[in-house]
Amino acid sequence: MALAEPYTKTTEIGEGALEKAHRYMSEEMSGLKGLAVCDKNTEYIAEKAFPDLERYAFEAGTHAYGDLGDGLASYITDNGIGYAVAVGSGSVTDLTRYAAHAAKKPFISYPTAASVDGFVSSVAAMTIKARKTTLPSTPPVALFADPAAYMTAPRRLTVSGVCDILGKYISIFDWQAAHYLLGEKLNDEIIDLERRAVEKVLSLDPASDDFTTAVMEGLVMTGMAIQYHGSSRPASGAEHHLSHLWEMRLINGEIDALHGEQVGVSTLIVLDRYKKALCGDIAEEYEHPQFTREFLEPVYGPITDGIIEENTPDPLSELTKERISAAQPDIRRLIEALPDVGWLRGYMLALGCKTRLSEIELPDTAEFAAKSLKYAPFVRRRITLLKILRAEN
Ligand SMILES: [Zn+2]
Fold first, then answer.
1. What are the residues whose beta carbon lies below 5 Å from ligand 1 (ion)?
2. What spacing in Å lies between the alpha carbon of 169 and ligand 1's midpoint?
3. In the predicted model, is pLDDT for residue 393 greater than 70?
4. CA-to-CA distance for 62 and 69, rounded, in angstroms?
5. pLDDT score of 290
6. Is residue 393 assigned to a domain?
């Protein structure tokens, strides 16, 4: 299946991207009032890169909360803003995308760190009423990633971006598993695009000058995969569901961890669980998950209704042991093709990634990991292998 024409027609990564941004703005946005959206950490970059634009700065290290996005949308509308430029990393980009979409104005992505794959994506990852949710939104009309901005980011952010890319091992696998289990439609070109993003990063020496640019390119490729598909399906599977659960602060307190750091740790946990599935019979062990209040409420508490709603109608209603049996040879083949857990952990450790729960301020216990694996699949309706594996208590 050929890929459709992307919404984001201009993506410039590397030296000279800022000049190209200025040219683009003077040609495509002429006569419109532009707004540079940033946070206190990236405001100096916005000021330097776009001195002629009005600025809107969130608190340093802001999160993408719905009410903050609503405030920005009102500002855009009330002040006659014609387009916005997101000058920041993940949260600033999500807030800008959400607000620009609500105000029906275009936005340009100007990432300040190679930290997440959301810069060109078509969905906004927002926290609304304590629930982490992914809303259909509008991608940027253009992305300009200039090393003058993203090379100044702390190494921790780049390493986090690598982990967001490594998570694609699981998200691609879960998509393929859903195909074999329930006939979900795949797109081989999108999967190929994501695989090339992973290989691009793995093929480069992390100490080389080109590495951060390769990470940015890889993130833009996986973000484009989301855009081509129109949902985060290609780039978000069980590994992101664990991260979302932790971000909801339901089974843990506040944690000081970046999105990619959480995805890195969860990728290792899910990969380990999937490899263990090879030891048993997935069909034989399958028990239909109960999307009941009794099961969900002890963990989901006040947002239980929202979680029940998310899983209604039951995405697994047509799944039977027979269907799992029929899909099992393909699923086992895919699990075998996943990287070895020890190898992946080794790569991540060498790069300086966080690999343990305790390193992202979560309890480093088998119980906590088991609870995460048991409840995370319900944060989204999406089918993952984790959703059908028997939970270990
Ligand atoms: Zn991600």
1. 164
2. 12
3. no
4. 11
5. 81
6. no
